[in-house]
Amino acid sequence: MAGVIIAASILAASGAIARETPRLTVSANGRYLLAGGKPFFWQGDTAWLLLAKLNRDETERYLAAREAQGFNVIQVMMLHRPDMANPVAGPALENGDLARPRVTPGNDPAKPGEYDYWDHLDWVFDRAAAHGIYIALVPVWGDFADFRLFNPETAPIIGRFVAERYRNKPNLIWVNGGDRYGELSPLAWNRLGETIRASDPVHLMTYHPAGRASSSWAFHRAAWLDFNMYQSGHQDYAQDQQLHARGEDNWVYTADDLSRRPRKPTIDGEPSYENIPHGLDRAPEPRWTAADVRRYAWWSVMAGAFGHTYGENSVMQFFVRGTKANAYWPELSWQEALDAPGARQMHHLKDLILSRPFLDRIPDQSLITDSGPRYARVAASRGRSYAIAYTWTGRPFHVKMGKISGGRVRASWFDPRTGRFTPIGTFANRGVRRFTPPGRPSPGNDWALVLDDARGLK
Asked: How far apart are the C-alpha atoms of 388 and 94, rounded to whole Å?
């Protein structure tokens, strides 16, 4: 049966590409992305080692699962380390030389061994497009920069090769950088961005920084950077000892990025992953749960992010039981982890945001009169005719009414775990009103209050 499904999908792929992955652009207000001129909410997944670990049947299984869960972007490493190779297609580079991609004659997708790494990546792009998924491609991971293999001389070579090869893929998003501070190798990263942009002026590009940093810090004004990406990181409040520590408050990066000029959209491209230890390499520490990954998503989007990237420990490294893990003590196989609770719940946020007018939504903390610090934060945003307020603990809070249109508002609770609405009632749109979420206040009893102009959405 699986073979039949795969074959049918391949036959349909050519027609699905243009229909399901239209060109992405930045909205006129500099806050959001559009796909073919329509609102696009980035629901991303970190599939970092997909090219290094999966064969074609496994890749198809992964893409089908993520499509079914509502994901529309996957973040993938093109070159992780000099020995980067696909288990079927072989190595990407000649002797690990960044200036010498290994390109061989022949490209028969039905015969393993008769297509090379780059032929395989061609196929992955097309299969992702058939599932309505964009690939946010990181050309060069930071390991190459650490070993000085990525530098101002090699950056234009690999940049020109990859841009010329993939610029015609409709579902491409460029992600310059690779988990490194841009300030450490600014000339090389700039040259990579400039080279790609010169060959491909169409597809959007960002930069993936190191933990607790944003692309805006080094490259906000770079002509090749279309939107910002930050990595809020994997440490909890107690573990974050860095200068200007922000702990788990990923919304601060969103607010900072959107305060800059010219305005560019922003997104948390790497928050704490589900099922990964707090602090990454601290095995005895607790692991981040579905409740935590929901909080990161809602906090950043309420602050104005145009979407969110989710991650799961076993999936991002495609861990297989009985083999050596890349890092961070995964406990599930990647196939099991595909169905982690957080992965199944991510689309509820996207569905809610897309159900209301998209482009006029702005963050507005003035809606909440008694928001607190850290986990007590009640994160709020609104459009002209609606407002959303998210509490992670489910504690009661007060809302300043009159911030949206209409003499009366219709209120309801939205469950981030299930996507279900529970009506509250209709109220006068004035004064300050107290709202009490369902259940007993506790970490992870999260709810979103949704207020709509009672006359209907406008």
From this structure: 53
CATH for 362-453 (1.10.1060, 3.10.620, 2.20.28, 2.60.40):
2.60.40
> How do residues 27-68 score in pLDDT, each as one tens digit?
999 999 999 999 999 999 999 999 999 999 999 999 999 999
pLDDT, position 112:
63
> In the chain, where are the structural domains located?
2-355, 362-453
For the stretch 374-416, pLDDT in tens is 999 999 999 999 999 999 999 999 999 999 999 999 999 999 9
The angle formed by the CA atoms of residues 371, 375 and 378, to the nearest 5 degrees, is: 30
Note whether 299 and 390 are within 8 A (CB).
Answer: yes
Q: Is the pLDDT of residue 16 over 60?
A: no
CATH architecture for segment(s) 2-355: Alpha-Beta Barrel (3.20)
Residue 147 is predicted with a pLDDT of 87
Provide mean pLDDT across the span 76-99: 96
Q: Can you tell me the mean pLDDT for 92-102? A: 96
